[in-house]
């Protein structure tokens, strides 16, 4: 390997260093220069967390071989607030509340800086366009655009600098006020350390061997060749688990690494700790696993049929959880109804796509406490489970929650922390694992795909008499949060409506797909999609306005739900009123319109997507040609 | 992950060919690397070990830009962003800035090259059909008997299928030459799942030249991509429109010519609808930019497609 001698200027300082020929600029600034403000969200040019200036031009450092930086001037997020004072844009991000998890924010601030350098008068459309290469999963972008507009106006003197300061809170009065987030400066400056940014002296790098099979028996695993390799400090498999293996939110059905068989493509089989990630990767190739493929099952309803492949021996029917609810008599309700409607709805798996891929560190502290640092959304539960898995008293296990670069439910499961603890114990050195985006997508939980058959009986005036829902969810290979999701789905199945006769069955089913788990809304999305779509169809059939049919059935203050929860106040009718007003809704049954709607011509309706705002701008705050 | 033992940045064509000869069979040429690095990731090529990467972006000849009355010569390492930053270039090749603004994002455009887009030969490439509409010819160079030998070939011939070209072993794409078309109106229509960083499901490059009064088509050039293995010039529509008077009815007729364009395996019905809409919108926008007389375009049409 021919190392490079790299001469460049980084954040105003000359550097002269050797670099590996295959390093990307992103690796060089993060690993070699320890400038961790810019992140690696995808490694493939798609997200913009890695955006840096190269000779004043913003570029994605994950796509730049480091050799391209030869002789160049590189500016990272750390260059913007070098003296400790935030730039106008960073202050504006703070003021506007434009950072949430913060993982996208360094890249976003860089892109916004570039946009206003190129056109200090850019309007909102042009700002959007110029920030198009940067993704944020938390904010919905509006506050980010607000922040850039605020910074623009302060820089141009249209607003005073005081506009960047906190204005309306006094004496600890915060409710109803615009309060600045106290953690925002650490995020807009790139100073906040997420798990993947942290290093420790003597730290080893971890890589994971994953299953290529959806369902297979593990005949044997031979790690001897990998263990013998230079630079390898430790290899672990399920054989290294000293205690009771198994984790999960409700059932502890998932081993730290595959035990006896693999149940989905991407399941961890072995993990390696080495002096560097490349060496660890090479060792993975030296681990010999012999698999005996088993018949897989990929469809939840097929998995429920007798004779289907069994995913877990403890559940021969593949049912992770069935939640039945019965209120009144649905058959009687249907008999009394004027209209009975039946439809089947399905929803697909959804990836959380938090901008921060999973990452974690583990080490054994001087007192023999096994410490795991990770963006876990459930550290206390993880701590208890890990103590049992590694057979240590709870006082010898510690979990530290690192800043979460977006979770949305996807970081509730103890998918990788167990492996890290085992490697820290085996090597007695700090170990760190950083997932690639691909690894994160292939191996971590998704939103439950669902298939829902819904029957509803209604009176001619729109009142619902009966609801019968059967929802089958694909829970994938392991239980994770499936039980909770099935409960919540069943609880919310009938919607916020008064229905005298209700029958609900929700099923979470084991298959050989990627496990499903927690995802914000937790089962409500799947059932609400069915119930609400059904109500729109009912409105059409009965000639009612969709808002009206909901008002007719809406729960009011003091209502009791189908699961016997007594509600003090119910804001549904107020929410309906507000939504109707804000949308400029054209009243009437869905059938009264032809091909066009009369309620789309107002300011809150977004125009069709286009690009090219920059062609209209003259760079001085005016317009060159009529906007197209 | 892309792993190499050596990363070479030759400063001239001669140096580049020397490096290619020295590492024969063990090298790969790279320019902006925006196709190459994402390709070497899990789920695609995975970890790839290439002994020598030869980066051609520092070769002065591959960065040159020459514009004269008739032709425009672009070095193969021209970054896409140049179509937006260089006003004279945008003026000479009027569809290119409209295409560039839809290409990836501001950052990747600063790095991605025209040569990479052409040689990568993706059916969803954007600048390739746009250059095809400008009648691009390629200049290819290789070392033969110690001398640099060049040949030229129309872009349409060079591309032979998805990921396939006529680039010979040991050959480099050095330059692209296009017709200079100042005074033409250009447009580029593209649709994908979002507006930045998106692969074209359909894209269309349009160039229109009108007579002095802005009433008659003097010339039309159209190239479509995303829906077939390689981009296709729509000569039938070009010929149909040439010398005719611009009216809404004429455009509708052109958009309805029975050409079976969609060869994609998926979403054919959708793509057919999009192609028709794009032909209307692309021709209307390009005609407007070419100075169309207001009589030719009814306000109803502009509202529907403009
Ligand atoms: C996030 C993202 C978004 C993207 N969006 C778009 C988009 O909207 N539209 C679009 O069309 N593309 C898009 N791309 C793809 C890519 O950016 C383009 O195809 C780009 O033009 C490739 O150029 P490059 O210089 O980066 O190619 P490289 O990766 O450097 O090279 C690509 C191939 O061409 C060969 N090559 C390059 N130059 C030469 C030469 N002079 N002679 C011989 N061979 C050569 C290389 O050997 C390699 O095989 C996107 C890519 C990413 C990562
Ligand atoms: S764009 Fe570089 S890490 Fe995502
Ligand atoms: S704040 Fe943007 S991804 Fe979380």
In short:
The complex is a heterodimer of chains A (628) and B (306). Chain A is an alpha+beta fold. Chain A has helices spanning 25-32, 88-96, 105-118, 124-130, 142-155, 184-188, 224-227, 277-286, 300-304, 330-336, 379-389, 417-427, 437-443, 482-492, 524-542, 546-553, 572-582, 613-616, and strands spanning 4-10, 13-19, 51-54, 57-60, 73-75, 204-210, 216-222, 232-236, 261-262, 268-274, 288-293, 319-327, 339-347, 359-364, 370-374, 397-401, 431-434, 450-458, 464-476, 501-510.
List the helices and strands and how they pair.
The complex is a heterodimer of chains A (628) and B (306).
Chain A lengths: L3 E7 L2 E7 L5 H8 L18 E4 L2 E4 L12 E3 L12 H9 L8 H14 L5 H7 L11 H14 L28 H5 L15 E7 L5 E7 L1 H4 L4 E5 L24 E2 L5 E7 L2 H10 L1 E6 L6 H5 L14 E9 L2 H7 L2 E9 L11 E6 L5 E5 L4 H11 L7 E5 L15 H11 L3 E4 L2 H7 L6 E9 L5 E13 L5 H11 L8 E10 L13 H19 L3 H8 L18 H11 L30 H4 L12
Parallel strand pairs in A: 1-5, 6-17, 15-16, 19-20
Antiparallel strand pairs in A: 1-2, 3-4, 3-5, 6-10, 7-9, 7-11, 8-10, 12-20, 13-18, 14-15, 14-17, 18-19
Chain B lengths: L1 E7 L4 H10 L4 E4 L5 H4 L8 E8 L9 E3 L3 E5 L6 H4 L1 H6 L3 H5 L5 H4 L4 H7 L6 H7 L3 E8 L2 E8 H4 E3 L2 E2 L5 E9 L5 E7 L10 E9 L6 E9 L6 E2 L1 H7 L6 H8 L12 H22 L9 H7 L1
Parallel strand pairs in B: 1-3, 2-3
Antiparallel strand pairs in B: 4-5, 5-10, 6-7, 6-10, 8-9, 11-12, 12-13, 13-14
């Amino acid at each position: 390997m021919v190392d490079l001698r790299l001469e460049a200027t980084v954040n105003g300082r000359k550097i002269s260093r050797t670099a590996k020929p295959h390093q990307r600029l992103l690796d060089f600034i993060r690993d070699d220069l320890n400038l961790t403000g810019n992140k690696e969200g995808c490694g493939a040019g798609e997200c913009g967390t890695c955006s840096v200036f190269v000779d004043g031009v913003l570029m994605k450092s994950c796509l730049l071989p480091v050799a391209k930086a030869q002789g160049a001037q590189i500016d990272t997020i750390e260059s913007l607030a070098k003296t400790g004072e935030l730039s106008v844009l960073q202050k504006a991000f703070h003021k506007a509340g434009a950072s949430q998890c913060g993982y996208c924010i360094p890249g976003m601030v860089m892109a916004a800086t570039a946009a206003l350098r190129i056109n200090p008068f850019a309007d909102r459309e042009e700002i959007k366009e110029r920030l198009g290469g940067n993704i944020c999963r938390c904010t919905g972008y509006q506050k980010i655009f607000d922040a850039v507009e605020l910074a623009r106006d302060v820089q141009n003197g249209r607003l005073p600098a005081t506009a960047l300061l906190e204005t309306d809170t006094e004496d600890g009065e915060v409710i109803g006020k615009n309060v600045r987030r106290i953690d925002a400066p650490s995020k807009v400056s790139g100073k906040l350390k997420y798990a993947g940014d942290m290093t420790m002296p003597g730290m080893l790098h971890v890589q994971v061997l994953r299953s290529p099979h959806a369902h297979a028996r593990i005949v044997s695993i031979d790690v001897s060749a990998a263990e013998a390799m230079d630079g390898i400090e430790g290899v672990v498999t399920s054989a290294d688990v000293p205690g009771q293996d198994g984790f999960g939110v409700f059932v502890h059905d998932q081993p730290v690494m595959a035990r006896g068989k693999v149940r989905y493509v991407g399941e961890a089989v072995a993990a390696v700790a080495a002096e560097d990630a490349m060496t660890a990767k090479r060792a993975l190739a030296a681990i010999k696993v012999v698999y005996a493929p088993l018949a897989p099952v990929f469809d939840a309803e097929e998995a429920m049929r007798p004779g289907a492949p069994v995913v877990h021996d403890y559940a021969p029917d593949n049912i992770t959880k069935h939640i039945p609810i019965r209120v009144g008599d649905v058959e009687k309700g249907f008999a009394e109804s004027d209209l009975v409607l039946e439809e089947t709805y399905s929803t697909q798996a959804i990836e959380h796509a938090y901008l921060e891929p999973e990452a974690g560190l583990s080490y054994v502290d001087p007192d023999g406490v096994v410490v795991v640092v990770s963006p876990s959304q459930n550290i206390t539960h993880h701590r208890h489970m890990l103590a049992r898995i590694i057979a240590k008293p709870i006082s010898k296990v510690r979990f530290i929650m690192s800043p979460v670069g977006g979770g949305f439910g996807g970081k509730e499961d103890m998918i990788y922390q167990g492996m890290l603890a085992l490697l820290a114990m085996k090597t007695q050195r700090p170990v760190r694992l950083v997932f690639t985006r691909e690894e994160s997508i292939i191996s971590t939980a998704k939103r439950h795909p669902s298939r829902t058959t819904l029957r509803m009986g209604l009176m001619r005036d729109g009142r619902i008499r009966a609801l019968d829902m059967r929802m089958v969810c694909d829970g994938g290979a392991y239980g994770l949060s499936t039980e909770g999701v099935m409960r919540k789905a069943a609880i919310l199945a009938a919607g916020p409506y008064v229905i005298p006769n209700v029958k609900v069955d929700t099923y979470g089913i084991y298959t050989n797909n990627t496990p499903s788990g927690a995802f914000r809304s937790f089962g409500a999305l799947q059932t609400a999609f069915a119930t609400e779509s059904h109500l729109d169809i009912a409105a059409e059939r009965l000639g009612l306005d969709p808002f009206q049919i909901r008002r007719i059935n809406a729960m009011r203050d003091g209502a009791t739900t189908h699961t016997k929860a007594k509600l003090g106040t119910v804001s549904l009718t107020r929410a309906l009123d507000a939504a109707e007003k804000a949308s400029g809704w054209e009243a009437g049954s869905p059938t009264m319109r032809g091909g066009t709607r009369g309620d789309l011509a107002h300011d809150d309706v977004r125009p069709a997507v286009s690009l090219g705002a920059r062609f209209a701008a003259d760079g001085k705050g005016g317009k060159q040609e009529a906007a197209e | 992950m892309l792993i190499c033992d050596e990363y070479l940045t030759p400063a001239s064509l001669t140096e580049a060919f020397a490096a290619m000869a020295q590492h024969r069979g063990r090298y790969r040429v790279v320019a902006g690397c925006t196709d190459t690095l994402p390709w070497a990731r899990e789920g695609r090529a995975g970890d790839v070990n290439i002994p020598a990467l030869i980066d051609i972006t520092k070769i002065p000849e591959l960065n040159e830009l020459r514009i004269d009355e008739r032709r425009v010569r672009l070095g193969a390492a021209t970054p896409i962003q140049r179509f937006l930053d260089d006003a004279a270039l945008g003026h000479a090749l009027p569809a290119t800035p409209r295409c560039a603004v839809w290409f990836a994002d501001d950052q990747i455009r600063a790095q991605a090259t025209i040569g990479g887009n052409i040689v990568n030969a993706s059916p969803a490439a954007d600048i390739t059909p746009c250059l095809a509409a400008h009648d691009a010819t390629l200049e290819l160079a290789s070392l033969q008997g110690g001398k640099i030998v060049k040949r030229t070939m129309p872009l349409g011939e060079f591309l032979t299928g998805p990921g396939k070209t006529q680039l010979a072993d040991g050959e480099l794409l050095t330059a692209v030459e296009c017709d200079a078309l100042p005074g033409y109106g250009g447009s580029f229509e593209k649709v994908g799942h979002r507006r930045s960083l998106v692969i074209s499901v359909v894209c269309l490059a349009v160039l229109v030249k009108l007579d002095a009064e802005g009433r008659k088509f003097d010339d039309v050039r159209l190239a479509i991509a995303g829906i077939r293995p390689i981009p296709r010039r729509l000569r039938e529509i070009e010929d149909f429109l040439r010398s005719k008077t611009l009216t809404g009815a004429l455009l509708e007729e052109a958009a309805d010519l029975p050409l079976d364009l969609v060869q994609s395996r998926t979403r054919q019905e959708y793509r057919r609808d999009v192609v028709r809409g794009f032909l209307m919108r692309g021709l209307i926008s390009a005609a407007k930019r070419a100075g169309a007389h207001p009589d030719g375009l009814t306000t109803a049409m502009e509202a529907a497609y403009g």
